[in-house]
Structure formats: structure tokens, C-alpha cells
Design brief:
The complex is a heterodimer of chains A (about 60) and B (about 950).
Chain A lengths: L7 E5 L3 H12 L3 E5 L14 E2 L4 E2 L2
Parallel strand pairs in A: 1-2
Antiparallel strand pairs in A: 3-4
Chain B lengths: L3 E9 L2 E8 L14 H5 L3 E3 L8 E3 L1 E2 L11 E2 L5 H5 L4 H5 L12 E7 L1 E4 L4 E2 L16 E3 H8 L20 E8 L16 H15 L5 E6 L9 H10 L3 E13 L4 E8 L4 E6 L1 E6 L1 E2 L2 H10 L24 E3 L9 H18 L26 E6 L11 H9 L4 E7 L5 H13 L4 E6 L2 H14 L7 E5 L1 H5 L6 H19 L9 E3 L4 E4 L3 H12 L4 E4 L21 H14 L3 E4 L2 E9 L2 E8 L2 E7 L1 E4 L3 E3 L13 E3 H9 L10 E5 L16 H15 L4 E6 L9 H9 L3 E4 L6 E6 L2 E8 L4 E5 L3 E4 L3 E3 L4 H5 L27 E3 L9 H19 L3 E3 L5 E3 L9 H5 L5 E5 L5 E5 L9 H5 L5 E3 L4 H11 L2
Parallel strand pairs in B: 8-18, 10-16, 11-12, 11-16, 12-13, 19-20, 19-21, 21-22, 24-25, 24-30, 25-26, 30-41, 32-39, 33-34, 33-39, 34-35
Antiparallel strand pairs in B: 1-2, 2-7, 3-4, 5-6, 9-17, 13-14, 14-15, 23-42, 27-28, 28-29, 31-40, 36-37, 37-38, 43-46, 44-45
Helix pairs in contact in B: 4-5, 5-6, 8-14, 8-20, 9-13, 10-11, 13-23, 14-15, 14-20, 17-18
Classes of the chains: A alpha+beta (about 60), B alpha/beta (about 950).
Chain lengths: ~60, ~950
Amino acid sequence: MSKKTVASVLVAGGGIAGMQAALDLANSGFYVYLVEKSPSIGGVMSQLDKTFPTNDCAM
Amino acid sequence: MTVSEIQGISGEEGDFEVRILKRPRYVDMEKCIACGACAEKCPTKVSNEYDAGLNKRKAIYVKYAQAVPLKYSIDSEQCIFLKKGKCRACEKLCPAGAVNFEEKAQEITINVGAVIVAPGCEAFDPATYDVYGYGKSPNIVTSLEFERILAATGPFGGHLVRPSDHKEPRKVAWIQCVGSRDIHAGSRSYCSGVCCTYAIKEAIIAKEHQKGALDTAIFYIDLRTYGKDFERYYNRAVDAKVRFIKSKIAGITTDPATQNQIIDYIDESGRRVEESFDLAVLSVGFRSSQEAITLAERLGVDLDQYGLAKTSDFQSVKTSKPGIFVCGSFQAPKDIPHSVIEASATAAEVESVLAQSRGSLVRTKEAPKEKDVSGEPPRIGVFVCCCGTNIAGFLDVPGVVEYAQTLPGVVFADKNLFSCSQDTQEKMADIIREKGLNRVVVAACTPRTHEPLFQETVLNANINKYLFEMANIRNQCSWVHSNDKDAATQKAKDLVRMAVSRVGLLEPLYDPEISMNNAAMVIGGGLSGIAASLNLADQGFPVYLVEKTDRLGGNALNIHKTWQGEDVQQKLGEMIGQAASHKNITVLTNSELKKVDGFVGNFKTTVETNGSERAIEHGIAIIATGAVESKPDQYLYGTDPNVLTGLELDSRFNDRGFSAEGIKSAVFIQCVGSRIKERPYCSKICCTQSVRNALRLKELNPDMDVFIIYRDMRTYGLREELYRQARAKGVIFIRYDFEKGLTVDKDNNNIRVSFTNYALNRRMEIRPDLLVLATGINPIRENPLATLFKVQVNDDGFFVEAHAKLRPVEFATEGIFVAGLAHCPKPIDESIEQAKAAASKASALLSKEKVTVEGVVSRVDEAYCVGCGRCEQACPFNAITLVTREGGNKVSYVQEALCKGCGSCAAVCPTGAASVFHFDDQEVLSMVKTAFE
């Protein structure tokens, strides 16, 4: 159990799920590499107009 | 790391080496100022994937105006120079010299303790099927294309028109389950889980666009609005006259004369009907992309039959490979809040695996030293942002700059192309230092998104971050007055003058730090409470797990199996054992909370255990008090022993002595007391539970006739597989007409269920030996925790999270979290995920020695306070209490950690003793005064 572990994490995918996981880990004391295949993060959610059921702007 | 891809992995949990290919962007991110000159001149136009192919972009591009990072990149597959060796127009035109065709791909290796896989899913391509006519007319669009049509940033500027002739449609149809719940090649047999609700959303928004003068119809199989507040959303659509047509689609053809879509469908009674619409929207489902599958293969993660990551119900974010976790739609189709919860759950898992090394690689930024500017006369700098063309395109930015220079106290004013770009941030900090500025105004977009960024810029120039003010000349000016440049310019000048008048009066403020007790209290010893406690305890935090009854386990003690068939009693038993023996967990059964004092980091809670009270100090609290199965007062429940609720049947299955031999027929009635006026929500779990239990009955006695009488079958997501299996095994599903009623009575000692079959439109009767009522989930009425922690419940009685999408486990009050059924009905896997998500959010606080709270809080000048207590009553956060000073004077006292700086106290204070830092009367009134100058 006392094996040494590395305090950094790789998150593959910069959509809403990947970004949230990265934020949580960074806020909790871990170094995060957020890897995204396209030129910018945001994923599919950035393409949505509004979100249900509150009709909030997705952006 | 953008434009990057994982190539391979070696090592093991806690210590992986990951190889990453960083592809060339051909644009230097440090140099690019995102001015767009390159894209303007780029000769190559290609389909714009961000707008779902509805318009074109250039080969050098940013995905959208708000993209992060806001840096251009060159699409190497489309760039003429990269393909044919000629052009380089962008390189010549770039004013920043950022284009670099010499950039090469490079492979780097990084060392990490864990990996989270979140590649998402792609939308089904309906061109695979000719039945939907996709590609034959521009007026047959996917739901994602329709999102872009509705969006203000989309190809039609948010004007709802159909692509063929840019005319406003009068009739729009949505076709559900395109590529989902379909076993044909190319489709997925699962339900994509989100399409019903997004179609409702699109229909509601489309109607709003057209001011209601739009006929909308949704063609569906089952309407699956199972999430929190989704059923209300559906009811709202029904009230707004969105038509819902249960049907099977036979085909969509285009009328060449009108470019209208003729939808050919079979209605529920089997009639073939045709109806013409101006626009048809295909509600496409999710499927895993080839890239995601390749990624999983490279990481050595097992996939299921759909090409999604394989997980179990009790460990739903763990992949087959230790140290690699999964979240989002690649785990299973899901909506945004569930993705956010799951993301936090993966974070919690990683935090527990890597707990001992926490903090060892974190780079903390040294806070810049602040210059003391007190006593100095204001030296104000004004930066006016062009926001590309967002502002400069609609008002005279140089004119505003010139005007700002004439205002009192202003010693510097200039414009920026993009104030938020990294290079501009540095430039601004340099100017603040050079010119000796001590107050700064940025006239740009909204402080809601950009104030923290500019406050940091100011701080980096050694100025207190509260000596800063924003004037919103975009959202509140250039955007709304885009057709009147003179008026917009004048308004921008007014807004800048107001901001300048206020900024000169601002005083430095300091965000108070409060100490953090690193113990957690989890209230509720059900599955969610246990899961949250175990995760936090594994992360090394002391946990007090408080349970009202004499044993841990909650509702799960009665559940037979999860939807995937995992043995709940075995898994629950293991978890209870771990919690009971964990060195960091103190289990308090027969215990209830009596009193809660304090605030984040410093709660002091009185817990009563078997009649004796103790005070426990803790830093955070997780509310996981669960819910109860509703007990019906109808359908012979309680009078006939053969009438059971769903959970009671589960409980019978757990009983080893249970035999189904004497049962020749069984009926399940769905939505008993759910989706009705008095309880207008769907309990989410009951359809799956009934299908699973129907299958179990068939397994125990294959000759049994099993009927499920339903309104809509809501076996959402991958649970659709169970529904398919049940039909294959001969379970009979009958949709009944809810309006025409369903009765249960006794006929010659037999149970008699009578209802109207929807498809046949005729009354039917069944006389089952066993009647199971799917009764849904009730919140705990008048939950004392709502009062003790001062947190809200919704109209249904479930706790209200801070934000439905992005903060689904937090309360508005800091340091308090929610998980499980107390939040809304949900199954075991989702309850555990939410519990872990709450633990992740909690650990972000618990892992710190101190947390800072907002400096904008209210204050009470005791010299003027008369102790009337009005502010105490007005405060929505219970931050104000009356205290007695020496001599018996009562005065108001503000607990800064609880105060949100809303100003309610200042508004009601009769003497002016209460005010809010940063927004005192003088600061606000000077803006009002100057507005009318």
C-alpha cells in the first residue's frame, strides 16, 4: 500500500466531462494534463444553443 | 494540450508513462493575438464542423469566438500550402508573425498517476438510412444542426429559418430515436437518453423564436423525460401546444415544389398517416467515435458490445484497467449534469488512489505584493476593448478612448483588440506599472465572466484587485444597439464615465482567510452516504457517518439486483463492512442532528445518539438522507397480500424461501402516483425495476404470464437492453390510456385490473395472481436538515443544487453538498457516482488548511446600529445575528464567512449602519449621479 504514486493525472478529452474532472483534480491538489485532439476545448456542449430543462445558455 | 493525441501507455496504477503526439498547430500560441487577419485572407473554404456543416470556415480558423485557447490553428488536411506547397497568405498577413509552417509534430512522454478517459461520443449519421431522407433536402436537418440554427452565434444569426430558402418555417417536426433503439446495422439498440428532452427544448425555443406562431410536432416511441424537473418541462411543452405523436416513421420524402417534408407515419392504432412540414429535425443519438475506440484500445481499456467503456454498477467510473477511469457519454449515453457528476466521481476515485502524493506536484503561484496606494490621489487608467469586431464593429472605440482621456482622474486611456488575450494582459500590467496607475477601468464585456481575469491583471501589476471596475460596453451596449452607432457610442461613453466615477472612490479590500477543519460529516447511512464516507476516508479525511436508524444500508437493504444484475446485498454488505472497520470513519447509528452552528471549515454540529448529545466539529457536510418508496392508498394495496410495491417484490426475491411456482400470472402497473398533478415528476427507476423483476419472475417460472401496464417505458440509456430482453422472453407490455383511468378491484376473490388499451382503444381486464405497483419515490417530508443547514428544497421536496447543470452536488451555501435520492430519484449507480462527486467537491476544501472567502461582504457600523434586527430578518444567508455589547446594547454582527454581499441588510437598515464593502452608498450614488450629468 505504501507504494509511491505520482501526483499528476492525464485527462483525455476536453469536453464538459473532461474539463470538470480536470478542474476538480486541480482544485484538490493534483497536477493535470488535459489532452484534447481538436484545437480548442469545450466539446459538444459549446455547440448547443440552450440547455434543458432551465433553458440556460450552453456557452 | 490541444491538437494532441494519446499514442500509448505503460506502467501501472499510480505510475504510468503516457506517450502523447502533439500535432503542429502551425500557429505560435504565444504570438497569436486572434485578430483574424489570417482567416480573412485564407483562400480555402471548408465545411464548418462547429456549425454542424451548415456554413463554411477557412483552413486557418478558430472553432468559435469564445474558443479556449483563443488561438488560430491551421487545418493541415485543408491548407493549400501544406497540401500543394503554394500560398502562405496567412503567414504574410499575420501582424504578430505567429504563423509557423516549420512547426513539426512531436511525441512527448508524461508521467502520471492515473488517467481519466472522457472522449465523448459523436452523433449518429442519419445518411446511413434512406428512410429519413437525410441529404436529399437541406430542410431535413439533424438536431445538432438545428441547435446551430437556433444559436445566436450560428449560421443564421439566431434567426429561425429553413436552410433551403431562408424562410421562416410554420411547421417543424422532430423525429425521435434516429439511430437509437434500433437494431438495424449502423444504429444502436440502446436509448441515447437525452434526445426526448432536447427535442422538447428545441420545440419550446423554436416556438419562442417564432412568438408561438409555429406548429411543432414530436414523433416518438416513448417519451423519456425521466430526469430532475424534466417531466415538468414536458408538461410545459404540452401546455405550449407542442404536439406529441406516438408513432412509427415509415419514411420522409421531399415535395420538390415546396421543399416541404412529407412525413409518412403509422400512428398508434396502426393507421398510415401523411403530414407535411416545412422542416424536419432528426433527433440523432450518440455513438462512440472511431477515435474514442482507438484511444480505448491504446490504453488497454475493455469496451462493451456498443463500443463504450465497460463498467459495473457499483464501480461505474472504473474501467477494466486499474488506474484508468471513465466519465461522460463514453461511459454510457447521458446528459450534461450527469456527465458533470460523473466527472467529479472520477476525480474522487483518482484522489483516493493518489491521496498520499497529493500536493507534491502542484505549482502554487506566489501572490504578487500589493502596493499601498492609500492617500494617493486617483490615477485612473481606462482600457477600451474592441473585442475583435464585437464592440469596434458597432461603436466608435477611438472616440470612447478620446472621451475617457478627458474624464477627471484619468491619466491614461487606450484601446485593446482583445483585452482578454494573454499578451494584452501582460501589456496592461506593464502600462499600470509604468504610468503609476492606482485604479483601472476595463470597458469590455461582462464582469460575470471576465472580472476575475482582469482583477488578476491588476493584481499582477501590484494593485489591490478591488481597485478595478468594468464597464460592460458589449453585452449591454454594442450588441443591443448594433443598428445605431452614434447612440451606442454615446452610451459607451456614459458607461465609461460612470465606471470612472466609481473606481476613484473604491478602497482596497482583502479576502478573509478562514481555517479549515479537515473532518467531514455525512448525514444518512444509505448507499450514497456510505460511498461518500468511504471515498473521503480513503483520501485520508476523518468522517462522521450519521445514521438515524440502527443499521447502515438504507433503501438498498431491500433491493435485489442492479439493472446489470449485480448482487446488491453482497456489494452493500462489503461496503458496510468497510465503513464499519475503516480507521477514518466513525459510524453513529441511532443518531440525529439537533443543531448546526458555524460555516464552511468550522461547523459545530450537535448529534444526539440514543438520547445523549455530543458536539462534533467538522469542515464540510454531505447530505445523503435519501428518500422513501411511496406507499399507495389505492389498488387494494394493504388489503390484499398479493398486491406489492416494487421494492417489496425486490425484498421477496432477497428472501431465500421465495417461490414463484404458484403464481400463474403477474401484472406490473407503472407510474402509480407518479406523473400526476399532485406529484408531477417521474421517479426514473421504476420502469427498469419492473422490467428487471418481470424478467426475474419469468426466470423463476417461464410459464408465468407477465404483463407490464405503462404510460411510457423509460428504460433509458443502456437499460433499453433489459426492455428488449423482456419482450424477447415474452413479457407483455401494454400501454394504457391514463386519461381513461385504471381500476383494481376484487371479482370472486380474484384481483381484477381494468384499463383501456391505448392502441386498441378498448377496455381490457386481467386477473393476476400477483399485482406489483411501481409506486415511485417520495422525498422525506419536512426534512429537518433543510432547516438545520438552511438549504432549499424544491416544490417536490427534493434538495435544490446550486446549479442544475454545472454544480449538481453543491448547495449555494459553501461547504454543504448533496448526494443520492435526497437530490432526486436515481438508481444505485448514479447515487454512488453522485456520492463520490460530493466527496470530490468536499476534498477540494478538506485538503486545504485555509480557504479564502469573498471580500465583498456587508459591515455594520456599531456606532449607528440601533439593534432593531431588521437586517437579521432580511439576510437570506443567516449571516447576521444580534449580539449584546457591554452595557447591554444590542447590535448586529456579520459573520463574514456566511455573507454573500447581497446587500439586503443595507437596503433595510433604517439608520445607514449596514452597508456592503465595495458597494457603499457613496460609490453607487456617484455612478447614478454621473449617469444623469
